[in-house]
Each structure stands twice: as structure tokens, then as C-alpha cells.
Structure to design on (698 residues):
DNA sequence: CTGTTAGCGCTTTCAC
DNA sequence: GTGAAAGCGCTAACAG
């Protein structure tokens, strides 16, 4: 066996470093936390001692001594599709954990699809918040509201839906064009050379994430799978009934329909229409977001694949990024990257 | 907007609870941490105060006061396929973070494929370790060694490869039969009804994860895709050269070969043989683990899909589970579940 | 059974 | 520029 060397079990403390460098606690603290007012020579001496003793800050002690608490606002949609319900629940759980870390989350439910309402909410946010996570809308007023918050020193992360040109600190969510491309590749390959048309059903084409998905989908489908023609996108407004009607009509209108890419919500409507038509097994259907409903459709074989973003991961990531920012601690990009999950019935969690 | 109510920004401390319940700090501590020796009546009084004030323990203060440090051993393979190299690197990074949490990781590199060497290492592990993460082998001696550690009160988690009937605390890794089934569904669907044979190339059939994957693969393929015949599994010993030879021979022997499921390592060998044969674009190839090499093959179109387990997630999860166990803190199963990732070239991280 | 008290390692005034 | 000292909220040892 090629052994790993054992490291000392006891860790060096600030005091050890102070002793080794022949300075006081306070001075070491200044150096370690990069505060000013220390002679360059002293800095060097302390840094040498830090390196020699392998000093690493004790996160628990630092947080305790600082004694600061943080308040974050999570601005989530008032509407209730299953994905958003799951997300809200995960935010709630994250809040339980955060409370343990001296940070507190308030959840504000607003109509995030109305830019004015959303912007208004952000504008009127209590100055007590050091951080905000928001399902954004890429709209001038919303961007301005985010920029105002940022200017006030509030850390803003966008969640699930981004406002790319705003001064948000970070976006917690998937790469939507890539998700669309992923759906297209699955669709193209599952279709295996058959010739016909494929429909795209979005919630609303004024939602950035839906259009981005549709864009990515079309891009790959048209360039790589010339055998299938992508139909112009339909808008179901994320509403089950409306989406059902749209799908039913689509199925009668397009006898050559091979597949459906549903890049928004309203999947229960699609399932109903597909099952009523008797073509559920023939039409390849790819949907977004693993929920209790889409899971059922996937297991049953009505949905062929689900593209997912993990709401639990997103909620935790938003909280971690906000907290790390407030504590001036680093984050690990690797850990915070939200994956584009692909679920088949075989790899369901 | 349906407002979320603001919670008090300042949190209740143990002392607040003590005052409210009319008892001392120590008593509250006993109740909160479920230690014995408190009258039921007092317990009730304290718990009422806790509920009333919404008291939540301050994790930082608790850890600091306990002042205990932990040492964990990570037993990883000495061999160097890309996946294991990545894993080692991620364990290293996790160690940096853990050091901040008063916990220290030593990495021991051993030949984990030799049950006696592995068991020997576990048996002789310094008693200084409170926790061990090990890429296990499902072998009697290894199981016994794990059980001994567990009996000594050492927390053992198996990593990537499990020893299910041992007394390990937890398994950090994917469901391998499910991974095999996932590969089969992708294979079957990508093949789209074509008729021919499909090969399975494993590292070694005495590795539990490889056989489990192969089992899951065969299961779905034979039941759902009668058009393709699965060939008996080949063993490439996770060695590139040997796997290249095996694959080259396979390609000449089986002119009707439609697909390859590579459920172990040695993928560079497969790529070479496939590309040399000129059939790289025709043969559907599904491999495991996203590495610098498999990524290249996927982008290039030689590999059609990669089934992955995230080594970063695995390293962090192992560390979190071990630490939480030592601190008697709860873990979130949701967060610790290792996903079976599917990567196409479109959703690569 | 319950209370008192001395820290844990760091940050933060406030002096020098 | 640098140092001394008072906590942060909790745990654990010891008294009662």
C-alpha cells in the first residue's frame, strides 16, 4: 500500500500562529483576514507562520465571534404548478438548515409573470435583507429593480429564470438553450430516422427560459435531423386545460405527428389529449421537470424522457451562494453548477 | 402579492430559553440534546419555551464548544484510471473544506482489487480514525474488516462500490443495476428497431458494480428489445490495451454488431479499435464515467451517451455523512442520493 | 436532578 | 502599527 501520511490531528489556532510569529492575536487576525494597517514586514512574518503551521481558519469560531445574522428574501411565484410547489417546499427545507447558520429566509409569493408586480416587489423590499433570490423575468423594469438592489449592496441571485444583463451576483439554474438541444438530440435519436413532424409546446414565448429551450431544440433538430420538421411553437400558458385543447387539436390536424417537446408546464393536459387519442405509445414525448405527474407519465411510457432541474439543489445552492457572499467565504463553482438532468424510467430517483 | 411574514431577525439563545423556562443553561442543554437526568415535568417546561421562542441551535457555537476534531481515512485505489484520478482530486478538495470544519482526511492508496490487501489495510487502520470511506469489494474478508471497524465504533461508508451485507453506515454511490437498465433503454431506443447484436465490455465480472450493470442491461435489453441480441460479456480488466484488442477482435468477429455497452474503464482502447475499424459512426457506444477522454469521444460522436456518477458529489457526500454521524447531526437523504447522470454532448457540464 | 463556571477559537472594540 | 481583553452561544466538568 502506498500510504497517505497522517497529518497532525490537532489543528493550529490563531494563537499558535501569533506565538510562532511573535505578534499578538489581533495582528494575526488582521493579516489572515486581509485587513489593513499592518507593516509589510509583519505581514510576511505572519504569513510564514501560517504556512509553516498549516493554519486554517475555524469556520465555526469565526462565525460565532462575528455574531452577525443574515436575512434573505426568496421571491417565488404565487401560481402553483407542480415544479414551483416543489421548489417552494425545498426552499422551506433549506430555510430550516439556514436557521442553524444564523441566516433566515422569508418567502414572498408574487405574480412573477407580471414584470411590474415583480419589479414593484423588489423595489419595496425591506432594507433588512442582505440577500435576495428571485425567479426573474428578463424585463427592463425587473432588471432595473435588481440593479437598484445590487447598488444598495444587496446580493441578488436569480433562480430558475435569469436576467442576464442585470447586476445579479449569480444565476442558479440550468442552461436553457442546452436543455433544448438535449431534448432535440433525444427526440432525433428516439425517432430513429422516421419522417414526419414534431411539435413544440411552450408555456409562453415571452418567458425567456421557454424561448431559449425552443431555440436550442430547433437548432439541433433542423441541423441534425432533416427527416423531421419542427412545427411552430404553441403556447399553452402553462395551463392544463388550454394545453389539452391545443394538443388535441394538434393531434387531429397533424396525422404525421411523431413527437412533442413540451418545454413548459401543463403536462397533464398533454397526457390527457395523448391518451384520449390512442397515440400515446407512438408519439415520442419529451417534457421538462420531474414532478409527481410527469413521473407517472414517464413510468407509464407516455412520456419518453424528462429533462429536469433539481429544485432541492437549486434552493440549497441559492442559499449557499448568498450566505457565502455575506460571509466573504468562497464557493465551489463545481458544486453550484445546476445540472441538466435526463430521466428515463430506469434512472428515476 | 401574498406576503411571507417576516420572522424576527434576532434568534433566541439557550440563555433566553433558560430564562423563559425558569431553569439553568445546563438544564436546557440537557433537554435540547436529549441527555438524561431531567424530570419529565422540567423537560416539558423547557420544550414549551423552546417552541414558544422558536429556538434553533447555533451550529457554529455548538461545534466550537464541543471542540472535538475528527479524522477520517479515505481508502482509494492505487491504480490510475481517469475516474479514480478525478475522485482522488475531489477527495483532496473536500479535505480542504473539511479542515475548516475541524475534520481531517488522510487518503490511503491501496490495491483495492485485491481483497486481502484491502482487508489488511482496513484491519490495520490506526484507531485514531473515527470514520472511514472505502471503495469496497464485496468479499468475505473485506466485509469482516468493515464489520470489525463498525464494532469498534468507527463509522464506515462505502464509496462507489458497495459491500451491501456489511455493517457499513451508508453507501455513497449509484444504483448499478439501474445504471445498466438506463444504458439498455438508451441503447434500445438509439438502435430504433434495427436487428443485430450488442456487446457488453466489463472490467471484471468479479467486480460487483460491473456485474450489476451488466445484469440490469441484459434484463431490459432482452425483455424490451427482442430485435437485438446481447452477447456474453467480455472482460477488459479496465486496461486500455487489452480492451482495444478485445474490441478489435469483436468487430471482425461480429459483422452484425450494432452497439457496445462499456460498463467499466478502458474506454480509450475501445475508441481506438472503433476508429481504426471505420465503424465508429455506425456502432452505438454507451460508456460509463465522464472523464477527459470519454468527454472527447462523446463530443466527437464516437460515444453516444455517457452514464455518470459525479465524483465531486460522491466525495462531498461521503465527508458530510461521516461528519454528520460524528456530530450526531441529521443528514438529508435527498441531498446525499447520488444520481445516475446521463450525458449527451448537449448537456455536458 | 439541577446549577455554576470555565473555556472553545475567533472578532472587535479600545488602548497604547 | 500593534496589543489586551471582552465576549459570541454552547458544552462539559464539577458542585450541590
Amino acid at each position: 500500500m502506498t500510504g497517505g501520511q497522517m497529518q497532525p490531528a490537532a489543528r493550529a489556532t490563531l494563537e499558535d500562529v501569533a506565538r510562532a510569529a511573535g505578534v499578538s492575536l489581533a495582528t494575526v487576525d488582521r493579516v489572515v483576514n486581509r485587513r489593513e494597517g499592518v507593516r509589510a514586514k509583519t505581514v510576511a512574518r505572519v504569513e510564514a507562520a501560517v504556512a509553516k503551521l498549516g493554519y486554517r481558519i475555524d469556520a465555526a469560531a469565526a462565525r460565532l465571534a462575528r455574531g452577525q445574522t443574515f436575512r434573505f428574501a426568496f421571491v417565488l411565484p404565487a401560481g402553483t404548478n407542480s415544479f414551483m410547489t416543489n421548489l417552494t417546499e425545498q426552499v422551506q427545507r433549506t430555510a430550516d438548515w439556514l436557521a442553524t447558520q444564523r441566516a433566515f429566509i422569508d418567502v414572498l409569493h408574487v405574480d412573477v409573470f407580471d414584470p411590474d408586480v415583480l419589479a414593484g416587489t423588489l423595489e419595496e423590499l425591506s432594507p433588512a435583507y442582505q440577500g435576495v433570490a428571485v425567479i426573474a423575468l428578463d424585463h427592463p423594469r425587473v432588471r432595473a429593480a435588481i440593479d437598484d438592489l445590487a447598488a444598495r449592496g444587496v446580493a441578488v441571485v436569480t433562480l430558475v429564470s435569469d436576467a442576464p444583463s442585470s447586476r445579479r451576483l449569480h444565476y442558479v439554474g440550468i442552461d436553457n438553450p442546452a436543455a433544448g438541444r438535449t431534448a432535440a438530440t433525444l427526440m432525433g435519436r428516439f425517432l430513429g430516422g422516421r419522417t414526419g413532424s414534431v411539435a413544440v409546446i411552450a408555456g409562453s414565448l415571452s418567458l425567456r427560459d421557454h424561448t431559449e429551450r425552443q431555440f436550442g431544440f430547433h437548432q439541433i433538430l433542423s441541423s441534425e435531423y432533416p427527416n423531421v420538421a419542427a412545427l411552430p411553437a404553441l403556447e399553452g400558458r402553462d395551463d392544463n386545460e388550454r394545453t389539452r385543447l391545443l394538443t388535441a387539436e394538434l393531434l387531429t390536424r397533424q396525422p404525421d405527428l411523431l413527437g412533442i417537446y413540451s418545454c413548459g408546464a401543463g403536462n397533464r393536459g398533454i397526457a390527457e389529449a395523448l391518451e384520449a387519442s390512442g397515440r400515446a405509445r407512438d408519439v415520442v414525448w419529451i417534457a421538462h421537470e420531474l414532478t409527481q405527474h410527469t413521473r407517472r407519465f414517464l413510468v407509464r411510457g407516455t412520456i419518453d424522457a424528462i429533462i429536469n432541474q433539481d429544485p432541492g439543489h437549486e434552493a440549497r445552492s441559492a442559499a449557499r451562494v448568498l450566505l457565502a457572499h455575506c460571509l466573504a467565504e468562497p464557493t465551489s463553482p463545481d458544486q453550484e453548477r445546476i445540472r441538466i438532468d435526463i430521466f428515463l424510467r430506469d434512472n428515476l430517483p
User: Anything to note?
Assistant: The first strand of chain B starts at residue 70 and ends at 77.
